Amino acid sequence: MLRLLLLLPTRTYRTEAFLEAARALGVEVVVASERANALAAERPDELLALDFLDPAAAAREAAEFARTHPLDAVVPVDDDTTVAAAAISAALGLPHNSVASAAAARDKHLMRALLARAGVPVPRYTLASLDEDPGAVAASVGYPCVVKPLFLSASRGVIRADDPEALWVAVTRLRAILEDPEVAERGGEAARHYLVEAFVPGQEVALEGLLLKGELQVLALFDKPDPLEGPFFEETIYVTPSRLPAGVQAELAAATARAAEALGLREGPVHAELRWNEAGPWVIEIAARSIGGLCSRTLRFGTGLALEELILRHALGMEIPSLEREARAAGVMMLPIPRRGTLREIRGQEAALAVPGVEEIAITAHPGQELVPLPEGAAYLGFLFARAETTEEVEAALRKAHRRLDFVIA
What we know:
Structural class: alpha+beta
């Protein structure tokens, strides 16, 4: 039986989906997290604790484990595990992205530098230190500009500034995030720096793809119909297929493929964020992992293959029946946190589910939980999913269902 090493941080949303995909394939699974599992002593063949912040150490420990429990593939599920997965795969001689390419996809400044060097369209940018005067740093970029941490995801800490005063406020808020002990430990030296880049206007999209020996296969292109103009960049609705003209979609795919090549990525899933305006496509970032949160539930391939099963099949060298997404339109709404406070109650779920086209509501927050909105926060209230014949119908269903939900926050 094939054996798979899944790198699953304790805070990920993706555990259930990947484990279900492994069960569907009849694959033996070893789960590695950054903290020791309470059942590890009873199940040493199935549970590992690896330090994802030290890829070399993780690779040594995984290689030692593999001497008695051979591994056929290593799959990271989010940003925090991609570099460790590359190091482990290299140590085991498995197909993988290089450690350098995975690390470049995790560092927004290094990513910008490599993309710019390769001629991939990116915003003007500069690297800043928390010890520097932000106004002096931003002079080379101009206004409006965007400050963002080098390593955080889901738009956490990403703030637009239209003038020097707004920039000072933005950097002050970002500093508080980066100096949080947990964030500082995760980021190391990167937590003392941040990126300042020119704001790029235009429509934003997300591209989900799979790299097969360096060739990009586009799995889905998501429109983001809500304007993402700041000051914060909280993502809400994703809908696919895209309503952009075919020629524009082809240019966005080509830009993503060039970005992956510039970083040296060659195998596995990629998730890219891009903008389109009269100047063409702009690569905002590209990650060496699949779409985050529970958003993968929008995607089905062939006769119903889930995205996670497709990823595992590729990693294990198994046949992939089809890379073609289902014909129906689909979408997800990441339910935003409207304000800071304690969640007391969730109302209106039955009414929201009654909206035609809405398939599922997955509430991930729980009563009693302290809620923190962006840019400081790093989570959503939950996810809404819909399917219909057209993208317009999907978007309308998600918006209508969201209006029927009521989150009581103290």
